[in-house]
Design a protein that fits this description.
217 residues; mainly alpha; 3 strands; 6% strand; globular
């Protein structure tokens, strides 16, 4: 009975058609170096940033540390006892995100929050011994990633790259200041969400009031 069942199953199976070779010749794979060689500087910097981030995150994961927490820890290793606003400014992160991160780091035992004697209403963030000890583990990992990224490059090349990047940062900082004078502003998270969803974006404050009135009319 088993043989009959197997024969019946074999009969149901149909032979697969032979694989047909495409008449279109396959193109050789393009090396990523060739594809990015003509990219704008902004794309190259983004590629470097993405590579550095992924390489570092793999190492952080081994120690159970989130990259978002590293952003704040490295600031506190330099200057402990900051307010939440000071920590936000030095880390370059919005205050609501800083508040959430500090709460999480407090639960993990990396930081504590205390009010100071001079002003009981002012709460400052301090590293715990556990949070301070992470410096000796994570800093060498960050240095290792930087060394990997700069592998095979001469010291004078690294110095030039550093000088160029610092100059670009300064130029873009000036552009942001000048843009505010021309009534340009950074869009809020809400504006970005509206733009992605296809809804109208809110007008910048100080915009053309006559145009606004015409639209309402």
């Amino acid at each position: 009975m088993q043989k009959e069942g197997m024969m019946a199953t074999d009969k149901k199976r149909e032979p697969r058609p032979p694989m047909l070779r495409s008449s279109i010749p396959l193109k050789p794979m393009v090396k990523w170096q060739d594809s990015m060689a003509g990219d704008r500087i902004a794309h190259l910097i983004r590629g470097v940033g993405r590579g550095l981030l992924r390489s570092f995150q793999m190492r952080l994961y081994e120690h159970g540390v989130a990259h978002g927490h590293w952003t704040f820890l490295r600031v506190l290793w330099r200057a402990d006892g900051l307010t939440q606003r000071q920590l936000s400014e030095q880390a370059g992160v919005m205050e609501p995100s800083t508040f959430a991160a500090v709460q999480a780091m407090e639960k993990l035992g990396y930081v504590v929050r205390h009010s100071v004697m001079e002003n009981r209403r002012q709460v400052r963030i301090f590293l715990t011994p556990k949070g301070a000890a992470l410096k000796h583990v994570l800093i060498p990992m960050a240095e290792e990633v930087n060394e990997i990224a700069l592998r095979g490059m001469a010291a004078d090349e690294v110095a030039i790259a550093r000088r160029v990047l610092l100059g670009m940062i300064e130029n873009l900082a000036h552009d942001e200041i000048e843009s505010s004078d021309r009534n340009l502003r950074m869009p809020s998270t809400r504006d970005l969400a509206q733009a992605i969803s296809g809804h109208a974006v809110s007008e910048p404050s100080g915009g053309n009031k006559d145009e606004t009135r015409k639209k309402r009319a």
